[in-house]
Structures are given as C-alpha cells and as structure tokens.
Amino acid sequence: MYSEKVMDHFQNPRNVGEIENASGVGTVGNAKCGDIMRIYLDIDEDKVIRDVKFKTFGCGAAVATSSMATELVKGKTVQEALEVTNKAVMEALDGLPPVKVHCSLLAEEAIHAALWDYAEKNGIQIEGLEKPKADISEEEEEEEY
C-alpha cells in the first residue's frame, strides 16, 4: 500500500511548524478530500531557501508529501524550488497509491503558492511561475496525467 518512505515521513514528518515573518506563505487545499496544506519559506537575499516549514490538515499521504516537499526545496534557489514537481515528490517517496496522487499535486501547488507570495511581497517576477490555484479539484488533477 504505502512505501516505507511514505510511512516514515507520515510518522516522523520533517520541518513541521510555522515561520514568523516568512518570505512567502502558500496555502492550497482540495475541497473534495478536505486536505489543506500551508508551506512557509524563509528566502535569503541570494534567493536561496534557508528554511521551510509546513502545516497540513489531511490524510497520512498529505502529511508525507508535505514533509518530503519541504526536504526537496530546502537549500535550493527559488528557481530550483519551482522545478520540484509532484512527480519528483512521489519518486522521492518511492511512489504513492493512485488514489493519493492528488496529495503530491497539493505539495507542488503549495510550493508554487509560497513562491508566488514571496514574488508579490518583493515586487519581482519568477520566470515560469504562474498564479497558483487555491483549490485543487479532481477535474484539474485528471488533466495532469
């Protein structure tokens, strides 16, 4: 069912919490399943993600994908973080059951939402970043395959 890595990140999530005065905060949800994910980024003057935290309300897979997504972007530049896809999150977790793929999409969108917030706060544009969706519906997920 779930890989050992998914179980490890669910039972021992990394980077849980909030960052006060975060450089960027992104919140996304999936109204159909009820998962809500919030990612906080602390980005330095060189556009490197110094720290990242998350708070997730949802199933075990949502917690695990949030945890792994924070691990994948920590220490990366803003541009490198933008390139972290839901597929990268799933691969890093050794896969997810098909019914839980939407959790990895939430993680990708939460990163993008936090980067969008950072860009707006700083009056900059991040090449390739599009305005994120606040709600990831299943119709949109099906387009991802």
From TrEMBL:
Listed name of the protein: Fe-S cluster assembly scaffold protein NifU
An annotated Gene Ontology molecular function: iron-sulfur cluster binding
InterPro entries noted in UniProt: NIF_FeS_clus_asmbl_NifU-like, NIF_FeS_clus_asmbl_NifU_N
Residues forming coiled coils: none
Classification via Gene3D superfamilies: 3.90.1010.10
A matching Pfam family: NifU_N
Top-level taxon of origin: Bacteria
Native organism taxonomy: Bacteria, Bacillati, Bacillota, Clostridia, Lachnospirales
All residue ranges annotated as the NIF system FeS cluster assembly NifU N-terminal domain in the record: 1-122
Gene behind this protein: nifU
PANTHER family referenced in this protein's UniProt entry, alphabetically: IRON-SULFUR CLUSTER ASSEMBLY ENZYME NIFU HOMOLOG
GO biological process, one term: iron-sulfur cluster assembly
